[in-house]
Amino acid sequence: MAATAISGAHLVLSSTPTTTRQSPPLHPRAARVSVAAAASAGGARRGVAASAVSSPSVASSAGKDAKQVPKDFLHINDFDKDTIMKILNRAMEVKAMIKSGDRSFQPFKGKSMAMIFAKPSMRTRVSFETGFFLLGGHAVYLGPDDIQMGKREETRDVARVLSGYNDILMARVFAHQDILDLAKYASVPVINGLTDYNHPCQIMADALTMLEHIGRIENTKVVYVGDGNNIVHSWLLLAAVIPLHFVCACPKGFEPDAKTVEIARNAGSKIEITNDPKEAVKGADVVYTDVWASMGQKEEAEYRKKVFQGFTVDEALMEMAGPNAFLMHCLPAERGIEVTDGAIEAPNSIVFPQAENRMHAQNAIMLHVLGA
């Protein structure tokens, strides 16, 4: 899509491996489905296995000095339902404007964003960088060797330095504590681009995709088939905000973090953990999967292929889900492993609209934390 040249805005992206793995109003108002109405009408990414990740000490609201309105976007359940739906509604509005070719909305003009990447990612980098550019900003990438946060330089120092240069920070890291520390010491908003514990930007994109294709999030049945990783944790944290029926079908020993499961259950959502994907998918609105071995787990890939036998999402499993079930995958996919070509290329696959929505959901998140 075409984009006008930016003037003066600057975005910085940085990456740092860690040795510790823990657990101006919008105009014009384009016609769109009211997300708030859709919500009331109905009702971790690329992380390590739950056994290797413990929920953060502050699973809700990373603290941010007990501020009622978080300056950062670290966990979905840091926000209430109305705020999450407001962000999704804004995403639909801005998406419609971008798709129409309208480039008059430039809320990030003159603004700078630093993006810290300890884990490389095509989708995260391009979606943030392009989205920020289309709304007037400029992105600069800093890879894993540029900062080495926590090794060459302490996280608190990185946070303060980058805050002096930029209006907003985004980080994609391994240890969840790194994003908490970054947010603690940064004086500008921090967005969680992924940790081993959760991936809130991905789930916001997923929620946006569900609104577009199903019309609601609340009271839907979402069935995740595979490893109980950071994507699963993110779905559970969304379920702590918006009531839904979430099922994780995974092999024994690969269940999601128990404390995070309880957070969702205590909020009123129906949460099931099972080892039977065939039974789990029945009546699903969405069947969701992800790679079995995430970044940092590739040495376990062959072992996991054996353990996860029977958990491949194929045409037969989608047929068991029913005619109205959509397939989602956060990508990248290992075709023929956790998902088949036939399933991912089927008419009911919304994997690629889902991928595009990363940019639109993140645009709305950035607008929210910047108050634009």
Automatic annotation (TrEMBL):
Residues 13-32 are annotated as: Disordered. The keyword Nucleus does not apply. It is found in: Plastid, Chloroplast. The keyword Secreted does not apply. GO terms for cellular component: chloroplast. It comes from the Eukaryota. It catalyses: carbamoyl phosphate + L-ornithine = L-citrulline + phosphate + H(+). Pfam families: OTCace, OTCace_N. GO terms for biological process: citrulline biosynthetic process; L-arginine biosynthetic process via ornithine. One of its GO terms (molecular function) is ornithine carbamoyltransferase activity. Residues 71-212 form the Aspartate/ornithine carbamoyltransferase carbamoyl-P binding domain. Its EC number is 2.1.3.3. Keywords: Amino-acid biosynthesis, Arginine biosynthesis, Chloroplast, Plastid, Transferase, Transit peptide. Residues 14-24 have a biased composition (Low complexity). Its main location: plastid. HAMAP family: OTCase (MF_01109). Belongs to the aspartate/ornithine carbamoyltransferase superfamily. OTCase family. PANTHER family: ORNITHINE CARBAMOYLTRANSFERASE, MITOCHONDRIAL, ORNITHINE TRANSCARBAMYLASE, MITOCHONDRIAL. This is ornithine carbamoyltransferase. It comes from Leersia perrieri. The lineage of its organism: Eukaryota, Viridiplantae, Streptophyta, Embryophyta, Tracheophyta.
